[in-house]
TrEMBL record:
Pfam families: DDE_1. Residues 277-299 have a biased composition (Acidic residues). This is DDE-1 domain-containing protein. It comes from the Eukaryota. It comes from Capitella teleta. Signal peptide: none annotated. Residues 268-305 are annotated as: Disordered. One of its GO terms (molecular function) is DNA binding.
Length: 305
């Protein structure tokens, strides 16, 4: 696709849905030595979660975080920080689906429409419907590449590099709130949950702290924006400095073998799509449509997997 369209790094984007919890208890406690167990006082909100959609381009530009909130009534004025977008889910759930995906496309991805772009995402069901694919290609002047099911921990920038530092910063903000001031409790004895305004500020601040360098490196580490001549393939080797997965990297031999495999696959895909190097844009688009008409997509209903 890069060879066909001649994308720039600011033309290649990725998005991913991730779960953010209103209650984030730490993994340990401090108590008297020798005591076998100690209860942790929570705020009774362990099942209360929100979906946050993060997106960015290969040049390091980050898109506004998009948070799904349950309910129909928008939060009071001043609750939502500048640079963060929300969507109220009238069904009382903050779960993504194809309709939410189309709303994200309109409000976030659709802010730019100046050049043909490439959107890389996983095979979550809400990304694969005919309406979503039609919107991406026609309304938003973009192409699609799907990350195969089971490969997100290796090929998806968000899973490989963004989500862990984002959630670490979010956890740090929650811990700071937990340890500050005098707690108040509900009639049932639960500590009161943080205010929604504070929670949204933490999400915005946590995403701000994920640096453009991490984002740029993630696209290279996942093989999306590496030099086509193979001179940057060493980035694919194991490097756990910004990763939250257990992928141990490719060996040098595997990288060398992949060049031949990639050349053969590219030739085969061009033949299957009926494309050649001199095809015009209309023929290319038809080929891409045929290639994405794929009935073997991962049918996962959980965007956070």
């Amino acid at each position: 696709m890069r060879a066909l369209r001649q994308y720039r790094p600011e033309d290649i984007g990725h998005m991913n849905e991730t779960t953010t919890w209103l209650e984030m208890p730490c993994s340990g406690t401090a108590h008297i030595e020798g005591v076998k167990s100690e209860g942790v006082v929570g705020n009774g909100q362990r099942k209360r979660r929100y979906t946050t959609i993060l997106g960015a381009y290969a040049d390091g530009t980050k898109l506004p975080p998009f948070v799904l909130l349950p309910g129909k009534r928008s939060p009071p004025s001043g609750t939502v920080p500048a640079g963060l977008l929300i969507h109220m889910c009238g069904d009382g759930k903050s779960v993504s689906n194809d309709n939410i995906t189309r709303i994200w496309l309109t409000r976030v991805w659709g802010r730019r429409n100046d050049r043909r772009r490439l959107l890389v995402w996983d095979t979550f069901r809400g990304h694969c419907t005919a309406d979503v694919k039609e919107d991406v290609r026609q309304k938003f002047n973009s192409d699609i590449v799907y990350i195969p099911g089971g490969c997100t921990g290796i090929l998806q920038p968000a899973d490989v590099s963004w989500n862990q530092p984002f959630k670490d910063h979010l956890q740090a903000a929650y811990d700071e709130w937990l340890l500050s001031g005098m707690p108040t409790f509900t009639p049932k004895g639960n500590r009161r949950a943080p205010q929604l305004a504070a929670f949204l500020r933490w999400i915005k601040a946590a995403w701000d702290k994920v640096t453009p360098d991490i984002v740029r490196h993630s696209f290279k580490k996942c093989g999306i924006w590496n030099a086509e001549d193979g001179t940057e393939d060493q980035v694919l080797l194991h490097d756990d400095s910004d990763s939250d997965d257990e992928f141990m990297g490719f060996s040098n031999e595997e990288i060398e073998d992949s060049h031949e495999v990639a050349a053969n696959m590219a030739s085969t895909n061009m033949e299957l799509m009926g494309l050649d190097a001199d095809s015009d844009d209309e023929e290319q688009e038809e080929g891409v449509d045929d290639d994405d008409g794929n009935s073997d997509l991962d049918d996962s209903t959980s965007p956070g997997d």
